[in-house]
């Protein structure tokens, strides 16, 4: 048990990553979690809980946690854990996270992140000596294995993003959100995905509809060519994913009598934006599926049946749902902002809701355009086959006294 995995919000992509790491590390790790409920309370109090519940051990070498945990508090409350090498994984940036209502931002959550990844001056100097980094203003130039120089921005810029790939596990540097997607060569056709979240949500139970289509029949013959465009939206039902913009575009398509089907997937929590119930009623027969699918097979089947996958997110560090959908053969349409330009070629990006509408309008008229399209981006780099070795190296490194 040399690796201590801590997850204060054990659900969704957080659970997905921790389960994958535990599976890969097997007997070499211990996993401590809290349920994926009441996120704000977990961010405030998880350190106190884990201080009492994480078993003491002299075998721990590395502590791996997501940024929901206030790592600085836990290190102060448990000096034995404070001595470990620490890897902090950021699923979002609370300093730039969209505020749902016009009110003053609760700075506590961003402050927790600052405390957890702050790198003091003496460690900045040490970083340069240990890993050969050269400082350039508020950024470092790190030499990767291929000898190329890549800029790694430090947290002094609240909008700093880490490039695709894992950053060196030093305090103060991002570790990017690459969920454990399997290699496209090892999974069934058009369904090369990692584990979907297995948690259920009672708020969506009554709206859940199960798919009854035969996939092989749908993907062949005249039915496939003539059926309406199928649009998928596989995101959490929360304000930062901007469902209002998505549904406004669909309503506009509906008003123009353009044929399409829509599958609204993703997980909901206690508070569901009103737009979901309003949109379901307004979209009527255009709705093919509505609600969270706890079965990964059903979820991937739904993505395989879709033609286009859309993001309208206001905040995104990576967007595993979009990459999963592309693996399943969907044509992606994403904002020309956030992390998306780093992942998707320009032809899959839109700048305004009007541009998104025009693209979908054309696809509704000619769905064969997207059904014949071959994705032009690269996805192999996000597979577990590509990233697994980096994670293993990250979690196999020996601790150092100066950390």
Roughly how many Å apart are the termini? 20 Å
Structural class of the helix and strand makeup? alpha/beta
The averaged pLDDT comes out at: 76
| Main sheet makeup | 6 strands, parallel
As a percent range, the share of helical residues equals 25-40%
Pick out the low-confidence regions.
137-222
Question: What is the chains' assembly state?
Answer: single chain
H/E series, N to C?
EHEHEHHEHHEEEHHEHEHEHEHEHEHHH
Q: How large a portion of the residues is in β-strands, by DSSP E?
A: 15-25%
Per DSSP, the total helix count is 16
Give, in spatial order, the strands making up the sheet with the most strands: 10-9-8-11-12-13
The global form is: elongated
Tell me how many strands there are: 13
Briefly say what this structure is:
With 403 residues, this protein is an alpha/beta fold.
């Amino acid at each position: 048990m040399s690796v201590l995995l801590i997850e204060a919000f054990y659900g969704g992509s957080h659970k997905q990553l921790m389960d994958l790491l535990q599976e890969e590390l097997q007997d070499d790790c211990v996993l401590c979690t809290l349920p994926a409920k009441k996120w704000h309370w977990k961010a405030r109090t998880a350190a106190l809980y884990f201080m009492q519940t994480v078993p003491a051990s002299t075998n721990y070498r590395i502590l791996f946690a997501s940024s929901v945990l206030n790592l600085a508090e836990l290190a102060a409350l448990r000096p034995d854990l404070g001595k470990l090498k620490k890897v902090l994984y950021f699923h979002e940036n609370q300093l730039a996270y969209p505020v749902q209502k016009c009110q003053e931002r609760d700075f506590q959550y961003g402050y927790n992140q600052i405390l957890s990844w702050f790198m003091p001056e003496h460690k900045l100097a040490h970083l340069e000596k240990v890993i050969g980094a050269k400082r350039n203003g508020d950024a470092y130039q790190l030499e990767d294995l291929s000898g190329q120089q890549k800029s790694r921005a430090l947290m002094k810029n609240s909008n700093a993003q880490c490039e695709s790939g894992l950053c060196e596990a030093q305090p103060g540097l991002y570790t990017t959100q690459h969920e454990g997607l399997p290699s496209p060569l090892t999974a069934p056709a058009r369904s090369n995905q990692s584990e979907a979240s297995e948690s259920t949500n009672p708020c969506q139970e009554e709206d859940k509809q199960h798919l009854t289509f035969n996939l092989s029949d749908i993907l062949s013959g005249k039915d496939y060519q003539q059926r309406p465009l199928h649009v998928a939206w596989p995101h959490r039902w929360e304000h930062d994913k901007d469902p209002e913009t998505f549904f406004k575009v669909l309503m506009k398509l509906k008003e123009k009598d353009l044929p399409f089907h829509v599958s609204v997937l993703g997980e909901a929590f206690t508070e569901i934006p009103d737009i979901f119930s309003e949109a379901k009623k307004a979209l009527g027969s255009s709705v093919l599926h509505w609600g969270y699918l706890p079965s990964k097979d059903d979820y991937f089947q739904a993505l395989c049946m879709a033609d286009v996958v859309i993001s309208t997110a206001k905040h995104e560090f990576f967007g595993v749902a979009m990459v999963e959908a592309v693996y399943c053969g969907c044509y992606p349409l994403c904002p020309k902002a956030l992390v998306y330009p780093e992942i998707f070629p320009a032809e899959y990006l839109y700048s305004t809701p009007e541009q998104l509408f025009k693209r979908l309008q054309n696809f509704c008229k000619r769905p064969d355009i997207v059904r014949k399209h071959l994705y032009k981006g690269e996805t192999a780099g996000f597979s577990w086959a590509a990233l697994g070795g980096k994670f293993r190296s990250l979690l196999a490194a020996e601790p150092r006294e100066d950390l």
